[in-house]
Amino acid sequence: MTLTERTDINAYLDGELGPDEAAEIEAKLAEDEEARARLEAYARQKDQLGAALAGLGEGAPSTLKTARLQKRLAAALARRTAPRRVVFGGPWLRGGAQIAAACALVAFGWWGHASYAPTAPNVPEYVSEAFGAHTVFAEDVVRPAEFTGGAVDGAAEWFSSKIGVPVSAPDLASLDLQLVGARLLGTKEGPLAQFIYEDTDGGRYSLTLAKHPEDRPLAPLKVVDYPDRAVGYWSTPNIDFALIGKKDGQAIQTIATNLAERI
Amino acid sequence: MDARAKLERRLTDYVTSLRRYALVLTRDGDRAEDLVQETLTKAIAAADSWQPGSDLRVWLFRILHNTHVSERRRARVREDARLMLPEAVDETDPTKRIELQQVLDALEQLPEAQRQPIVLVALKEMSYAEAARALDVPLGTFYSRLGRGREALRKIVGGMKSTKLRLVV
């Protein structure tokens, strides 16, 4: 048996193979007694090691110092993801900060699960948090929104009364984007509207709207690239916007520019 | 449960896993605890460099691994130390207990580069890709080390059985 074949048995044992590859290995195992014996031995040793390692943990209680360090680390990491006022970039970012706060509150909902929004260097923290709200809601194809279909129109009225300025879902049909739902995000700084769109390939976009503070200057469109997704944010006299999608920055820039010109 | 409490609970689980891994690497309870504390201290100092999108557990294992590697350069691991299954392990069947200790002993005979992938996978928490990231090696290297390591382990344990090696447990 070659090293590659042994490696395949390992990958099979550890659940690293897709169904087709797994079926291939099973076919080989069926006619190779030695390989079956090897798989059995690997599996038994993996289980035994797992049990032995679990036992090691039981035998070594945590010390006070370790517990204290663990708490300090939790505090340091919590600061990395907690909502924070944007302190750089000028006062015009405040609208964005509001979006950030909304998303940060939403973000607490998935704190503790695996999917944190990545933070690209040198972007306001709210951008990564808006990104998080997008990945939780907008990309959930089963239950992305509290309002869908015809209910979105009625929802927009409610959103407007909550937000304090008229908001509605822009028609993006000319960009081949279909409105699929909407959701109101509650925050301590005010409510935000999230509209969710789908392109012809099923790709999801979310457009988040916040009331633009009257005393703040307008923010020009900025686009930030993330691995696999991108965020565009800008403001108008009434409303601050954040557009997020599973596309590169160029694609988001195109949609956001088109949208910003029409609103 | 609020976000902070969830984070603390997750960290408790991770620290338990880190401690198990540290015990395998150092074979000594005190040294293992030192290694875990050193890892946490470094993680606190580097918290601002942790990317919230990345896997916290892999990040911590990676810090522990790198800390262990650099400490090995300073002080040799006690090669004579034996990793003992603690008395606290509730295993009523003495044969099984011997088997568990046997596999731990066999593990100690492997080169560390082969031992690490086997242990990370046996902790049942990491995929190959995550474990390779924690060890800072390419996936292909991880694959072959795991493959060679498991085969060596199988032969060592097989040899122990065939020579009816008596083990003190």
TrEMBL record, chain A:
The protein's superkingdom reads Bacteria
Q: Know the name of this protein?
A: Zinc-finger domain-containing protein
From TrEMBL, chain B:
Residues of the PhyR sigma2 domain: 15-65
Per the record, the GO terms for biological process are:
DNA-templated transcription initiation
Record flagged with keyword Cytoplasm: no
Write down the InterPro entries for this protein, in alphabetical order.
Answer: PhyR_sigma2, RNA_pol_sigma-70-like, RNA_pol_sigma-70_dom, RNA_pol_sigma70_r4_t2, RNA_pol_sigma_r2, RNA_pol_sigma_r3/r4-like, WH-like_DNA-bd_sf
> CDD domains given for it?
Sigma70_r4
MF terms from GO for this chain are: DNA binding; sigma factor activity
The chain positions of domain RNA polymerase sigma factor 70 region 4 type read 101-153
* Domain of life (superkingdom): Bacteria
Alphabetically ordered keywords of this record: Sigma factor, Transcription, Transcription regulation
Similarity comment: family membership: Belongs to the sigma-70 factor family. ECF subfamily.
Tell me what this protein is called.
Answer: ECF RNA polymerase sigma factor SigH
Write the lineage as a comma-separated list.
Bacteria, Pseudomonadati, Pseudomonadota, Alphaproteobacteria, Rhodobacterales
